[in-house]
Description:
Layout: E1 7-9, E2 12-14, H1 17-32, E3 36-37, H2 38-49, E4 72-77, E5 80-85, H3 96-113, E6 122-127, E7 136-149, E8 152-157, E9 175-182, E10 187-191, E11 196-197
Helix pairs in contact: 1-2, 1-3
Amino acid sequence: MAKKEALIIGGYKVPGARGGVAVLKACQLVRDNPGIKQGDLVDEATRWANLNLSTATWITTPGPKSPAGILWDRRKEGRGYRCYPNEHTSSAPDARVPLRKLILDDFDQMWNAALRPLPGDLIEWTYRYSYDSGPEVRTGLLQGFSIVRRYTKEQLILSRDVLEDLSFYDKGNFHINAHVLMTGGNRTDLYVSEAVKARS
């Protein structure tokens, strides 16, 4: 398989995965909010991309791997720094596109492992009550896939195709769970990989 070509803007090589998503989101934030505080910029970009803030200070701290001073300008104002667009800021592509790829790749991996169940399919959930207990299998009906953002369930979708819509990614990262009506009447959310399509 061919290696993906790196995205280079103004001589800066945008990293892959969520680090790159956060960098592209930071460019959008600077473009839309000229003069944004450096701390607010890294907070918002990392939260949107679901990147660990504690290891992401490189995004706004100038250094060999940082976009700061290349993809946007930093100016000392008062006690801190503020960030302003420069000639490269507007060249950054839409951060939603790589975020969508990350989320869909993760979903597809789990969905394929679960034999691609669809709403209305019978599923089997294998679990253990404790570490030393034997596995038990419960059955249920897949009702759809729930979109969960920051621990809040936002909606239930009935098709993977819906996830291709870029507007789903306007608010940033989210998780997808399998929403199941279990035998006995309880509804629960499972990891997609746990809601395995029952073999007929």
